[in-house]
């Protein structure tokens, strides 16, 4: 064994070795400690795949069934592991198939490095076979992108790519490499990690005067309220955040990407914000006197109508991205910086406090929501199953330790509302872009990113049919992912809106499904379908205990709605319970 | 608050593709660029964009932050017209016969600060520089005499209060920069500036 390791050390190319551009790409990945690449080969990326043939022991390559699946898998990997997700795709259609995932990663700040092949440099702009202007197509949906036409650039460009993707507010980077550069031999000078780019300031400098002002506001507050987002997770500041709210005694609520940064059961966790969030957090946003936003960007699904959002409150906004401060909600004090650094500074300056009456108000709203909405959703007496009760039973079985990957729509809102989480990086969902088809490939990636954890993908009957081909990836890799389809035989969220806002004119939301158990069987994946309450728990148990991937379809009520709801164009305090 | 003209000055790396990245920040928000110029700056290797738009200050401030967010942008400033000195260059091609017959060339050159760049038998090219109103005036004069071609450059502007980018670049090149001025430091400084 040891001999093998030594041998590996020896093959590591030294400075001054002649390497091809393709080998340099793979050397860069190894130097960046990449262990898994999601990809799909094609003409213009063949030299890299050829080089990969010799590197397969150091780099695990997961062959997906569609490039979109590849990039969503890389997103899932990045979200569960906290590392940079890496994708390979060929030029033309391979590259354009990445666009949805890039847009998703851009808006949800997911660190990715995507490497696309490109036609030979001399063919650029000639409408060559599978040539497309990837750099310009992806400019709006990447944090940075760059086209390499000379292999000599590869080590430096890839070092920059990884640095940019993971630093500051993370995001996707795309490197387009022409085929000639992949083939080109050059004098390899070794790989040097990048830690500074003069035109790039990943972290704004923390200014103490703003921390002091923020602390002053917090110390004087009578009804403070914390709203937090994924910034806490991306900044790996879960501990710092917990210390902050525990010392300050301030109740806190999360955006769906902030979910799992604070354990569900934490006494100061008041629940979810926004359109389908909890009653208390939404109403109290318009009653608090100081609103402290941590690593969140005041998305319209969180704020509802902006001109009626927290107008009475002084707003403290902590964010690493200066362009987020004052973008949607004007901040009284903007605290620029990495919350891993700003939160402890703030915690030091604030008084240790409790707000029993103020927290009590949240609890009262919680109680009202419990009796009017939650109880019936989790313990229904209807004949048909509800999505909520599936989540309740799942919680009981996983005890909040699983990674829950969700797609987009009603099941996503229900899962985020009711899933229990004990640890961070456990909620993987497409938040900003709302990409249907995200969950199945993202769950595959999440499992590769956190192999020791149970991964449950909760998907609607619409979303599963968008990327169902990735069952092939599961089949071939033998990865263990639990697929839970909540089938209401409708595109449920659109149907809900059509019911509530379009006079029940159900326009093209009635979607047929194949026999999912048969489909899974075709891919060698065991499965089951249930519609009876008595069978739900045993079916979920079987799914979780099964050795390997498993698909469970649960038939749920066709026309159930997700409540509470802040209707579009309404203020958060106008949230409806029915 | 109403829309007004703002000049955005952007210091950048000189990289292919950056023009598009900056342009789409405007087009994504359906904001028309009135004028756009790219040129070298006072610092070697650093490029300078000068962009003119008609917008609310609130919108401009957000745009500038989006521009600064681009990896290859070092710094972006926005200024109102009274905080900058700016010029635009205009070229006018007219028939030489027409112009010598009907317009007193000398008077024209003096009055509009114009200069003849080329004088040929068949045509003459005049050049002026100045603000838009100034270059427009000469169009009005020449139009009745058959203006064959007209072109005007983008605005180039110097920020009155700026001390240039030489010192700034050192700060950017340092790994641990000092207190970087994060707000637009040139805005609201007009009082301190002697203007003609």
Describe the fold and architecture.
The complex is a heterodimer of chains A (578) and B (196). Chain A is of the alpha/beta class and 578 residues long. Chain A folds into three domains: 12-188, 3-Layer(aba) Sandwich (Rossmann fold); 208-361, 3-Layer(aba) Sandwich (Rossmann fold); 379-567, Rossmann fold (3-Layer(aba) Sandwich). Chain A has 23 helices and 20 strands. In chain A, strands 3-2-4-5-7-6 form a six-stranded parallel beta sheet. Chain A has a six-stranded parallel beta sheet with strand order 11-10-9-12-13-14, with helices on both faces. In chain A, strands 16-15-17-18-20-19 form a six-stranded parallel beta sheet, sandwiched between helices. In chain A, α12 (238-248) runs parallel beside α15. The longest helix of chain A has 23 residues, at 356-378. Chain B is an alpha+beta fold and 196 residues long. Chain B has two domains: 4-84 and 156-189, Alpha-Beta Plaits (2-Layer Sandwich), CATH 3.30.70; 87-152, Alpha-Beta Plaits. Helices cover 29% and strands 35% of the residues of chain B. In chain B, the strands form two sheets. In chain B, strands 5, 6, 7, 8 and 9 form a five-stranded antiparallel beta sheet that branches. In chain B, strands 2-3-1-4 form a four-stranded antiparallel beta sheet, covered by helices on one side. Chain B starts with a strand and ends in a 23-residue tail after the last helix.
Number of domains of chain B: 2
What series of H and E elements makes up the topology of chain B? EHEEHEEHHEEHEEH
Cα(first) to Cα(last) distance of chain A is 64 Å
What's the multimeric state? Answer: heterodimer
Q: What characterizes the major β-sheet of chain B?
A: 5 strands, antiparallel
Derived from helix and strand composition plus strand pairing, the structural class of chain A reads: alpha/beta
CATH uppermost class of the largest domain in chain B:
Alpha Beta
Number of domains of chain A: 3
Please summarize the sheet with the most strands of chain A.
6 strands, parallel
Class from secondary-structure proportions of chain B? alpha+beta
